[in-house]
Each structure stands twice: as C-alpha cells, then as structure tokens.
Design brief:
This protein is mainly β and about 260 residues long. The chain is built from no helices and 19 strands. Strands 10-11-12-13-14-15-16-17-18-19 form a 10-stranded antiparallel sheet, with no helix packed on it. It has a 9-stranded antiparallel sheet with strand order 1-2-3-4-5-6-7-8-9, with no helix packed on it.
Amino acid sequence: VTDAAGETVEQREDRSGDGKPDFTAFFAQGRIARIEADTGARGCTDLRQWLDASGNVTAEEKDTTGDCKRDTWSYFASGGQLERQARDTNADGLPDTLSLVDASGAVTVQELAPGGAPPPTERLELRADGSVARHCVDGDGDGRLETEVVFDGEVLALALVDGDGDGRFDTRERHAKGVRARVEVDTNGDGRPDVVQHLEGDAVVRQDEDSDFDGGLDRSFVGDAPAPLAAGTKPLEAFPKLACGRFDAFWREKRWRSKR
C-alpha cells in the first residue's frame, strides 16, 4: 500500500501460505515503525510490535494463550533489554502481574489489584515514526509527574521539573543540540521564573534575575560581578501546566496506547 507520493506505508504478507495475509508492516519515513502478525494462523492479530529508527523493538503486545486476546504487554530499553512486562493471567483483559527488570537482569514481580493497577511512574508519548516526543516521570509515586522531558527529533530539547512536589513546574532547562544552555527557576512559587542562568558546558557564564518579581528581568551578574542585561532580553515566559497530567489510568496505557 502506497501513499499519494508513492511511498510505501503498509506491506502485507502471507507467511503461512494459506492465501490470507498474516503479517503487516506499517511504515513511517521510509522505515518499519510497527508490525502486526497472526502467528498462529487463527485469523486474529496475536502480536504487535513497535520499532525505533534502528529497528529495535521498543514495545510489544502478545496473545500467548491462543484465545485472540492480548495477555502480555512488554516495554524494552533502547538496547533491547526487557524493562517492564505486565501479564493477564486470568483472561479478564486486565493486567494482574507486573514484572520490573533492572539493569543487572534482576526481576521484581508485583501483584496488581483486581480491576486496576498502581499509578505508573513514567509515561512516554511517541510520534508517528516511533520516536519519543515527550517523557514524563513521577519519581515519588504520588500520581503527579515531577519531570517532563521534550525531544526535538532524537535530541533532548527541554526539561521541566517540579522540584518541591507541589504539582507545579518550578525549573525549566532549555537545551541546544542536547546540551543544557539555559536554566530558568521560579524561587517564589508564582509560576514564573525569576532566576535565569546561561550555561556553556556545565558552567554558568551569566545569571539574570527578576529581583522584584514583576515578570521582567532587572539585573544580571557575571560571576559575582554585576553586569548589564544582554540586548534584546525578552519578558519571562510563565511555566506551563503539567502536560502529561496525573497518572490515574492503567500503566499499560502509557506507551503503546499512543500508537493507536
């Protein structure tokens, strides 16, 4: 299947030889971004996989029992190592065990409550090509994210942090080509940055401040010495709301749900 420009967007194959397509590859930007397969020739999809730009599987759904219902959801690190897997062991369509795998390969299995699951600690939003657009993290498990990271292509562009856990961002890190270039901090909790640090490498080369908290920078320092504000200094941009929201849905709905 091709689009209006003649680019392949979908490719179907009959791998079992029964005259029916049982393997479908979906393309984005000239590469396979997702595959769906009927590996048991039962007339239903029992395997879905999402792939990154290198062809590595990043997320997977499986029907392992042959009843045409998904019962296993897996998430893989960039190197291919399994990091998280949920299983539905009683065929009710909901995950009831959660396995977490650390970098050493050690597995921790958690029993999930009937009809539900604990709040997730992270959420990934993917683009159509399978690349990560946004990564949100709830580090303390309170159901609210504390860190939101935004990517430009595959390069880190922006990081937002709720450092005091009050449900509002108070630190914004802007990156240039993946390297921190500017850090903005809200020190008085009014939702606007009042300290701006400009970095080269990891070193602060200039710090601008809004000393009267009126939303505009009014003084600058280079090292400990006062310095004039840079030409073209713009008003400070208020911190955004938490874009990923609260983590109240099933954790299994995080990565692969965004692909549907």
